[in-house]
Design a protein that fits this description.
Elements lengths: L8 E3 L5 H5 L3 E2 L4 E2 L1 E5 L4 E7 L2 E7 L8 H26 L1 H4 L1 H8 L16 H30 L17 E3 L5 E4 L19 E2 L8 E7 L5 E8 L16 E7 L2 E4 L5 E3 L7 E7 L4 E6 L4 E6 L8 E6 L12 E4 L5
Antiparallel strand pairs: 1-4, 2-3, 4-5, 5-6, 7-8, 8-19, 9-18, 10-15, 10-19, 11-12, 11-18, 12-13, 13-14, 15-16, 16-17
Helix pairs in contact: 2-5
């Protein structure tokens, strides 16, 4: 009797079944192995045999109501499109992966849940598959981060610099959106909010609930610190930038990027960010940083406990004889 596919599955033309799979017959079922995809939008890309459908990718989407529903539906559609693009990527690399050598090992008796007896007799193919899947995972992660940042940007807020907190050497623009280090110290009142030792400045706006996001242009600079700090954080004398002291920040120092966590975390970035996005989820205790131009995640402080107002934090660092004279600029968030 000819083999029939289950109605809710459709054959996925990742590889031509006649040219690539016909020679690989499952000894248990005495029929060629095939690839299928489900049509119900909950999972895609499956290796299938009769009575055996093994899911390779699932995309759960939480249901929400109100204004968020439209955004979530848009995100779901973007994820589905992204997965289809990744399937095309698989087709492009199928020859290097040598999947046709792997298929025989994927066959197992239906209803068998123990995979410990499955073995692959082609080490070269296993390594090729591992590399290809690693590349695929990297592409998938990059696409998910792009979608994640697009979602986070909806929480953009208008941030301006607070001159009452600025160190006397800092020069703020008239619109209070830019800050740079000046050579001469200005005569300013030494109010309790003002930093007197380190050349720091805070945003005017404080946040004690919900989520907020803003972006800062850092292009042309060789040193900077960015992040958020709590309202009661130390302003006078020596300051240690760490979560224990109420500072959640990342740093550029020449060519080295660090998250000023405890302990410090060295960050390996593919390229120097030109614009950094800062996102805070107050209730979740989350502070995340993003490279806006390439739409990738840089670092996150997680599991924090916030009990007071948080303020945007900026350190343009010393101008270093003109090498670091470019300002930090709070820029409008561009929504796609």
């Amino acid at each position: 009797m000819p083999h029939k596919t289950t109605p809710k599955y459709k054959k996925h033309k990742l590889m031509d079944p006649v040219e690539n799979l016909e020679d690989y017959i499952c000894q248990k079922h005495e029929r060629p192995l095939e690839l299928f995809c489900r049509d119900d939008q909950t999972c895609v890309c499956q290796f299938c045999t009769e009575g055996d459908h093994r899911t390779h990718s699932t995309v759960p989407i939480e249901e929400e109501s109100g204004e968020k529903k439209t955004q979530l539906e848009k995100t779901q559609a973007e994820v589905q499109q992204m997965i289809q693009e990744r399937l095309k990527k698989i087709e492009e690399i199928k020859h290097s992966v040598e999947l046709n050598k792997i298929y025989p090992s994927l066959c197992r008796p239906p209803h068998t849940k123990n995979w410990t007896d499955v073995s692959v007799n082609t080490p070269l193919s296993v390594e090729s598959l591992r590399r290809a899947l690693s590349q695929l995972q990297e592409h998938l992660t990059q696409e998910m981060e792009k979608i994640e940042l697009r979602r986070i940007q909806q929480y953009a807020v208008d941030v301006t610099l607070d001159p009452d907190t600025a160190h006397p050497n800092l020069i703020l623009s008239d619109d209070e959106k830019q800050v740079t280090h000046g050579d001469k110290q200005q005569k300013l009142p030494d109010n309790p909010e003002r930093f007197d030792t380190h050349i720091y400045v805070l945003g005017k706006e404080g946040f004690s609930s919900g989520r907020f996001y803003y972006e800062v242009q850092v292009s042309g600079k060789t040193k900077w610190d960015l992040g958020v700090t709590r309202e009661s954080s130390k302003r006078k004398g020596e300051i240690t930038l760490s979560p224990e002291d109420g500072y959640w920040t990342v740093r550029l120092n020449e060519t080295k990027y660090k998250a000023l966590d405890s302990p410090r975390v060295l960050l390996w970035l593919n390229q120097a960010p030109q614009k950094v996005g800062v996102f805070v989820d107050y209730e979740e205790g989350l502070v995340s940083f993003y490279d806006v131009e390439v739409r990738s995640h840089i670092y996150s402080f997680t599991g924090q406990s916030f009990t007071e107002k948080l303020f945007p934090f900026f350190n343009p660092c010393f101008n270093d004889g003109g090498k670091n004279s470019a300002p930090l600029i709070i820029t409008p968030v561009q929504h796609d």
